Amino acid sequence: MAQVTLDTIVSLCKRRGFVFQSSEVYGGLSSAWDYGPLGVELKNNIERFWWNEMVRKRRNIVGLDAAILMHPKVWEASGHVENFHDPLVDCKECKARFRADQIDLSAPCPECGAKDSFTEPRQFNLMFKTHLGPVEDESTVVYLRPETAQGIYVNYKNCLQSSRLKVPFGIAQVGKAFRNEIVTKNFIFRTCEFEQMEMQFFVHPSEDKKWFDYWKAERMEYYRKMGIRPEKLRFHQHGPDELAHYAKEAVDIQYEFPFGWRELEGVHNRTDYDLSRHSQFSGKDLSYFDDETRERYIPYIIETSAGLTRSVLMVLSDAYDEEELENGEKRTVLRFHPLIAPITVAVFPLMRRDGLDTYAQNLEEELRDHFNTFYDESGAIGRRYRRQDEVGTPYCITVDYQTLEDDTVTLRYRDSMEQVRVHRNEVVSAIQQAIREYRRVGT
Fold it and tell me: Is the pLDDT of residue 443 over 60?
């Protein structure tokens, strides 16, 4: 695999329509990014892959889509109002702002070089505050949620009763979250607006360790199913000084990005902290009664929390490759797993005449019922293949003059560049079979 830099990924994303700078025509907005035609397909496919693995394939996990705006007491109960702060300092000379725990306060300002110019550290709450209704005062304050988990906790009883679930069970959600981060960097890795894929699993307190270890293993296996290179993944166990105030045990799944090892997902044993706090602040009983054992208790929660937008960057970084062909030409290819590739199959007519283009257009329309497709009739076939390689399309179909004689087409595989003749009636099944049997090159 080629060594990839973040600049290479950023350039490819803009050139090929994966990610654009938000409000670029006005100079852009820091920490905000827009997902283009291919980027939104990639992001949606990753979300769908996660949802299938976490919800559709499991009997004891259901889905939820909670509102972004919630009662302000939710964030008091969760501890975010009290604990969700960063220590900040300003340079008195250049007015630059820094996190106090990430710079040497005895050193000169990193921006202007001024000495002894830092203000005293002060706490800065990371939640975005707004007002609900026409009047702006303290009684109308609400927050844009900094995480999706709390929406699950306050709906725990609703999901439990309506779905007739029994402990152990889980609730999954994908949604937007907002954090007023002072330091945003590394493209879409750390931004103020992002999306999370979270699952909260409710268990008997005596079985918390068993389920923590289970989900730790399951979540690592998920990335391998997605085709991510195993050598780029690792666990990071949180020590006592790293644990959040609610956690009994925590582990990160880290990926080696172009800028180093960083957190991709967290698996946490949150104990009964969340349900106990919401019971206390709301006055509602959030305990669970086991009909079989006649025991009443507050469930412990094992959380799996992954960043969707962060996963997009991980997938792009992991899929990027460059190779030199026998003719000396360099090929850039994104080796996406076919289930998450923005385009599954591209269809080309060899020439734009003699009915080849009409045949290819009709075939592409038929394939739309089964796959994400793309039609391209401009340029030499080799160039069209290279364009699809660069955006990660795993399969290409070429309609040529033999097609008009016997209804066979050329099916070309991205990773191996192998080409085979397939009858038109067997194209769908051939691609579906290839997806089922997909193995990434080098794994």
Answer: no
Q: Is 408 marked within a binding site?
A: no
Q: Is 310 annotated as a binding residue?
A: yes
193 annotated as a binding-site residue: yes
- Per the structure block, which two tokens stand in for 436? 């089922």
Question: Contact 376/326 with Cβ under 8 angstroms?
Answer: no
List of E strands, 206-308 = 233-237, 249-257, 260-269, 288-290, 295-297, 300-307
For residue 192, say whether it is annotated as part of any ligand binding site.
yes
The answer to whether the annotation marks 18 as part of a ligand binding site is: no
Residues near 115 by Cβ (< 8 Å), separated by ≥ 6?
A: 108, 109
Are 301 and 200 in contact by the 8 Å Cβ rule? The answer is: yes
Residue 99 assigned ligand-binding role: yes
Judged on CB neighbours under 10 Å (0-12, 13-18, 19+), 390 is middle
Domain boundaries, the chain: 6-76+141-315, 343-436
118 is in an annotated binding site: no
| CA-CA-CA-CA torsion sign (26, 31, 34, 38) | positive
Dig out the tokens for 345 from the structure.
Answer: 């199959």
pTM: 0.90
Residue 360 half-sphere exposure toward CB, CA atoms < 13 A: 29
Check whether 111 is labelled as a binding-site residue. no
- Give the residue with greater pLDDT, 61 vs 106: 61
303 is in an annotated binding site: yes
6-76+141-315: CATH, from 3.40.630.30, 3.90.960.10, 2.60.40.1220, 3.30.930.10: 3.30.930.10
On whether the 343-436 domain is CATH 3.40.50.300, my answer is no
Does the annotation list 181 as a binding residue?
Answer: yes
Q: What is the pLDDT of residue 1?
A: 64
336 labeled binding residue = no
Q: Is 189 annotated as a binding residue?
A: yes
Residue 242 assigned as binding residue: no
Distance CA 99, CA 390 (A): 38
